[in-house]
Amino acid sequence: MAHDDPHALDRTYQAPAGLSVDVSDPALNPGLPPHRARVTDQDPKAMKAAVRTVYTLFYLSLAGSIWAVAAYMLFPIESGSLIDVRYNNLFIGLGIALALLALGIGAIHWSKAIMADHEHVEYRHPTRGRDSTRAAAIQAFADANEESGFGRRVMIRNSLIAAVVASVVPGLALFRGLAPQDTPENPIAGQPVKLLQHTMWEKGMRLAHDPDGTPIRAADITIGSAVHVIPEPLGKVAHEDGYLEEKAKAIVLLMRLLPEQLIESEERKSWSYNGIVAYSKVCTHVGCPVALYEQQTHHLLCPCHQSQFDVTEHAKVIFGPAARPLPQLPITVDDEGYLVAQSDFHEPVGPSFWERH
What we know:
It is found in: Cell membrane. By secondary structure, this protein is an alpha+beta fold.
């Protein structure tokens, strides 16, 4: 309970001899329990052993971080070998797990066996910001440094700093995998604009259901529906090397509205068919799949960062961080009534920032 006099809590109630007092009474201060000295407080050898254990754990954490980076280089996933991919995941995971686990155990052991553990009471004060309060805060930091031994115990301090700094290095190293490099086999691997400039869509290619590859008839698309679409050839091939990359670029969302609801520019009036329109599912913000369609408002929603696109008007951005409309796939029907592409997209799919120089 609060007291006007903070020193009131210092007064431990002393009961007269032979008188039993109920110390559970909240009005009474039972005082602090007797302090129990640890083994490391009583035995200098035990203290030295604890210090060695802590900095050994910190250096073990450092070794785990270094091993994770080494494993990333020794087993490159870019090689295409399934064995390398497995070893990459296994040894990087083990290295990061060792780094974080040793760091955590070392910090806990340091606090429990080495840092001062004398109990104290921290009083609540009605106001803050006075000179005496600032001085007390500075003193508190000085006391914490003295009690923890951070300033005195050089081996613990240096090993902790090295382990903490190294623990983020594996994560930084893994970012390299997000930026593929050009190779003789794929000279544009590291050039996102060129990679996304074209997809596998081409003139006359049928639109098919994702994932089974069944061709789609225009007559089967009802008003208000939304259909996930891939190029027909993707439904007929096994998941070979490069399959997912091609699919990720070519995925489309197909919707049907009343023709009079579409607001189309002159050059794009031929890109739809009887109210059916097709747009890339790859959000122009950071590339998340745009797959939420609001039938009543005709809005497409990206679930990652809530960008919204108006299907009635060339999927223009009406809300959120996306910088440009979703690319539209020009479509028509063939002689059998199946929906087909008139051509590839006329602009790069995917995030807009990849187009900046």
